[in-house]
Amino acid sequence: MASLRPTSTITRLANTLSRCAATTAAAPAPVPREKTFQIYRWDPEKPGDKPHMDTYKVNLNECGPMVLDALLKIKNEQDPTLTFRRSCREGICGSCSMNIGGTNTLACIRLAWLPLFTWLPLFTSPLLCLLCNQYFCTKSE
After folding, report:
1. CA 100, 105, 108 angle in degrees (round to 5)?
2. How far apart are CA 15 and CA 107, in angstroms?
3. pLDDT digits (tens, 9 = 90+) for 82-95
4. What is d(CA 83, CA 67) in angstroms, rounded to the nearest whole number?
5. Which of 8, 97, 104, 140 is the most exposed place for a label (fewest CB within 10 A)?
6. What residues contact residue 38 under an 8 Å CB cut-off, 6+ apart?
7. Which residues pair with 58 in a beta bridge?
8. What's 82-111 look like in SS3?
9. pLDDT, position 139
10. What is the pTM of this model?
């Protein structure tokens, strides 16, 4: 009688695991969470080039949760000419500061899925003070 009890426990455990595996295998694929990013672009070295907005779509299921992760995904998979500053990815150094959705914040700590307005794309641009500092620093040297 004692030898039958472990067998029945193992059998029940095996049946439970096989049911869980069947349920997991039949689970539908996650619905893509697409987010549209509008990114301010300008190349000062191209004569006649004016500032413009480029639009990119990113599936948030395939990248990290932060805006910086989405920007890296855009740079790696869609547009290798996209450039931005980043360093620590922990919200300490401030090198990834940009205007995101009308608010000056850090791209490494701003959640990409956080809705600003559901009908507007996420607008990303560098901070104006950083552009001015880069311009004056390069012109005076």
Report:
1. 95
2. 47
3. 888 888 888 888 88
4. 14
5. 140
6. 53, 54, 55, 121, 122, 123, 124
7. 35
8. CCCCCCCCCCCCCCCEEEECCEEEECCCCE
9. 46
10. 0.64
